[in-house]
Write a structure and sequence with these properties.
Layout: H1 3-11, H2 14-17, E1 24-30, E2 34-41, E3 46-47, H3 51-85, H4 101-113, E4 122-126, H5 132-149, E5 157-161, H6 162-172, H7 182-188, E6 191-197, H8 205-220, E7 224-229, H9 233-240, H10 242-248, E8 254-258
Parallel strand pairs: 4-7, 4-8, 5-6, 6-7
Antiparallel strand pairs: 1-2, 2-3
Helix pairs in contact: 3-5, 4-5, 6-8, 7-8, 8-10, 9-10
Bound molecules: adenosine-5'-triphosphate, magnesium ion (MG) and zinc ion.
Amino acid sequence: MSHLAAAEILRNSPQLSSLIKSGEWVERNCDQHGAYKAWVLGGEFKETGCPECKKVRSLVEHRANIEAEKEEIQKRKMQEFMESARVPKIYKSASTKQLDGYVRDKCVEFLSNYRSTESLNMIINGGVGSGKTHAVCAMVNFILYKKIVESAFSDTVLFETWHDMADKLRRASSLDSVEENPIELYKNVDLLVIDEVGGASLRTEAQIEWFFRIMNARYSEGKNTIITTNLNASQLEKTVGTRSYDRLMNGSSLTLEIKGKSRRQAIPKTL
Ligand SMILES: Nc1ncnc2c1ncn2[C@@H]1O[C@H](COP(=O)(O)OP(=O)(O)OP(=O)(O)O)[C@@H](O)[C@H]1O
Ligand SMILES: [Mg+2]
Ligand SMILES: [Zn+2]
């Protein structure tokens, strides 16, 4: 009886296979890689598989592990970037893919000109709940993702509400150290998002002056600013001051007016 025939009988007979104490080599055939020698182990009938298949399997597993690890690192980095850009929690999953029609077109226009146009600003205007913050965060998330994919791309991004900014500008004159001074951050960050411009206006001369210095520095350095507001043009000009408004609305600036009622009440409430 050949080794192969004996191994076959043992394979089909658990009682006999358990009698085997030491292993032996048998000829096997792989559909993909042809003949190979398998080592038949004693005890439970087990044998080694095709070594080429094993190589392929471990290469595939290795690649899958690397991919999974890469994805995990990207995910962690994205979270880190969103934290440091201060993207609000509910907009962390906002994506440009969720935008449609003219809103999407305008956001895509901004994103495609983002690094090639100096002082590319955008003013997003619309009613309560129309999707302004969502749209701006979708763009921020896209830019942060690009920063991960293109490691050479190192732009810094900051999301700030107008309310917080106005508060910080009010306290700015009393802040001595440069590290603590938010003005430096507002001036230097590559993309500054100011959300919800309106409500609290810049009441003091000092606040208006600080805001102007920020906007002037940003304009002079070709940095990009996006604001969202539910004010119209003349109200906006009055709120931020004429000189700041003029720099915001420079020749490269884009405007987007989002129409429609609030998306927060998509499901009508019964009274
Ligand atoms: N394109 C979209 N796809 C999915 N959800 C959206 C979209 N646009 C807005 N939303 C959701 O609708 C709600 C209102 O949108 P958002 O907060 O952006 O409005 P807003 O214009 O900033 O309102 P407000 O003026 O009150 O600040 C949010 O929960 C937001 O996540
Ligand atoms: Mg908003
Ligand atoms: Zn094989």
